[in-house]
Write a structure and sequence with these properties.
nine-stranded mixed beta sheet, about 30% helix, about 325 residues, Rossmann fold, alpha/beta
Length: about 325
């Protein structure tokens, strides 16, 4: 079918008169590189145990609080109760057990209004999930498939061709219904073996994934609109609580967002039931006061203790200068 010559005139007009709709922001440093856009197919990838689900759920709560977005979640490796707990704690900034009955009921009602969950007691294919998404398209603005490798595939299918076709189907679904879908993936085994070189500040720690390090390879970055790599140095004594957001691809930068520089990810610091970005808590719209940083490494802590002990020694216990010591 050949499109009518008037197709996309509204888009061209919006560009010309400066009214092109921009992506939704969460009012922090992350907005420079990543914004939410309707009708997109996005991919999030990271090593196992870096906190991919934690971060995307936090990001969804941010967007729900600030813009009223609603979400549909398929997360086969997390309990529904655990996900609900995360959402409530992100929303309130408090531990679940510390909430009053009234505050819990308010937060739980808000959760049920903004989030729905796909039953994970059965195994789905990607196409099964798209059917469920279409049946519930009037409810949600965005959805997640977490993780992709937990989905079943049709027997005797070429996995490469299957993935390519499914990725194209997801993209068409997003465009057709103006919904945004995030697919969460893991890195390939070889990427787990890649560590920083000896001369790097984080020598020996696993390096962040590149776009093509996702299981299935480069087809995912080829087909998606935006690709986000999440990374965390899980065994680093100083940085284990910092989630790095590496934006590898933004297909349309004119509506907001751009890739991060290779060694300059956006750092999300886990703090008080939220993430802080440059000391800003987007959900609560607060800025954490600057605090004096205490030594973080065990070496620094030990040196501080030894220094304090030396200062606290009585005069008689302190060593004398060499010339005062008799032979």
């Amino acid at each position: 079918m050949i499109l009518n010559e008037t197709h996309s005139n509204d888009y061209l007009k919006a560009v010309r008169d400066g009214t092109l709709q921009q992506g939704l922001k969460i009012d922090c440093e992350l907005d420079t590189n990543l914004v939410f856009k309707f009708g997109q197919f996005n991919v999030i990838v990271g090593h196992a145990n870096v906190g991919k689900t934690d971060w995307i759920v936090w990001y969804m709560v941010c967007l729900s609080v600030k813009h009223g977005l609603s979400w549909l979640i398929y997360s086969s490796e997390n309990s529904i109760g655990g996900l609900k707990r995360k959402i409530i704690e992100y929303k309130t900034g408090q531990n679940l057990e510390d909430l009053s009955e009234e505050d819990f009921n308010k937060a739980n009602s808000w959760l049920n209004f903004k989030f729905k969950f796909v039953d994970t007691s059965k195994l789905y294919s990607g196409y099964d999930l798209l059917e469920i998404f279409e049946e519930n398209k009037d409810f949600f603005d965005g959805a997640i498939i977490d993780p992709y490798n937990s989905l079943k595939r049709l027997a005797n299918n070429n996995s490469h061709e299957y993935d390519y076709t499914f990725a194209s189907e997801v993209r068409l679904f997003c465009e057709k219904f103006n919904k945004t879908i995030y697919i969460i993936g893991h890195g390939v085994t070889e990427a787990l073996r890649k560590v920083h070189a000896k001369d790097h500040p984080n020598a020996g720690h696993t390096i962040p994934l590149n776009a093509a390090d996702i299981e299935g390879g480069g087809k995912w970055v080829n087909r998606c609109n935006d690709m986000i790599v999440l990374h965390r140095y899980t065994q680093h004594e100083d940085e284990w609580f910092i989630t790095q957001v590496h934006v590898r691809k933004i297909k349309e930068t004119e509506t907001g967002g751009k890739p991060t520089f290779i060694d300059s990810p956006v750092k999300c610091v886990r703090w008080n039931k939220s993430f802080l970005i440059n000391n800003v808590n987007p959900i609560a719209d607060t800025v954490r006061p600057e605090a004096k940083l205490e030594p973080q490494t065990q070496f620094e802590k030990t040196q501080q203790i030894l220094k304090q002990r030396k200062e606290d020694e009585p005069d008689w216990a302190k060593p004398k200068d060499e010339e005062e010591i008799p032979f």
